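The material for today's practical consists of a large collection of protein records. There is nothing in a record beyond a sequence line and a structure line. Backbone structure tokens are a discrete shorthand for how the chain folds in space. Nothing more is needed to start thinking about how sequence determines fold. As an example, a complete record with its sequence and its structure tokens follows.
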Amino acid sequence: MRNFVMIMLGLLTVASCKNEIKDKIEYKTPEFYFADAIEIKGEPLDAEYVASNVFKCFYTPYGFLGSMRSEDDKLAHLADMKSGEIKVSACSFGRGPGEILIGSPDLALYGNSLYMLDQRADWIKKVEIHGDTLKTFDLQKLSLGEPMFFIEIQIVSDSLFVIFAENFNGEKKIVQVDRDNNIVDSVVYSFLDDENVDCGKCRYNVEMELSPCKKYLYVSSHLFSGISKYQIEDGKISLVDKVMLVEPKYVVKNGIPVMESENVILNNRIFVGEKYLYMTADPEKVSDMKEREKRAREEGRRESAAPGNDSYIVVFDYDLNFIKSFRVDSDVWHLALTPDPSVVYASDYRENRLKRYVLADLK
């Protein structure tokens, strides 16, 4: 595993009943979070698959429901809880009813139903479990009055969605929309507060997650390694706070922030459970990332999303107070959370399996 230099998490404490933004970000050192990280090993499930093709999967009473690239080219799957073996599949590639045009749709779980955002066709598809089968429904064709690229989806209710979208001018928006494509509310998303940066030229790789109570929305920015927290109340979306996980080191060229070689990107993803917020981190310096990508190009191969650095699962409460960190024996990317806050399942990019992890002393 490669050594890395990392300035980790500017931790904020946000009272859940308030809507305030801090004026100052406090940066912590890596030791604050990782010096006492607990090393844990995962228990691999039997079934082998191409882990890099696991887009997302969720824990349900019926098995793992999600999207894994399978031999039959289906995109929605229900997998056995013990073995990880795919039991039933649905949703083919295509333009027809119940089909999807994009190979990696964004996914969200509501109840025990899977919602799939087809970013290429602007469709929301719904996958329901019916006994031993999966049924796919064309739920809604998104149209918000201007040409937009729809990136992420979260479900407030069966008739109310939150969409992360970008228009043709590069403006990013978080939009709350109902089943009739009426915009209930929207806010412009911008993570960097820098007047020299043209946010329309920035390309964010984001993750968006709703809290189980559907009141708080978290948006994770991979490029700038940070999290924004929003409150959803009475149909309104409001920014609560931002936290930089790593202090961004960049220079601005033609309005675009260009990361310096020593800057660290965490490749962080967030997952909100019934009690905690979990973050996966796979830190890497920009210089190392560029060298890795160069080698991949020279060797004519597609580089994995997980570069093989030390991987961590970091646990916070809903107000982003640090709880614990765990160093895992895998290239962890996606997590499937369970009703037990101490048990999670992760996609292991090294062994091409799902693994079960017990996060020690987490109750």
About this structure: Residues 1-24 have pLDDT under 50 and may be disordered. The two ends are 30 Å apart (CA to CA). The CA atoms of residues 60 and 111 lie 9 Å apart. Helices lie at 30-34, 286-298.
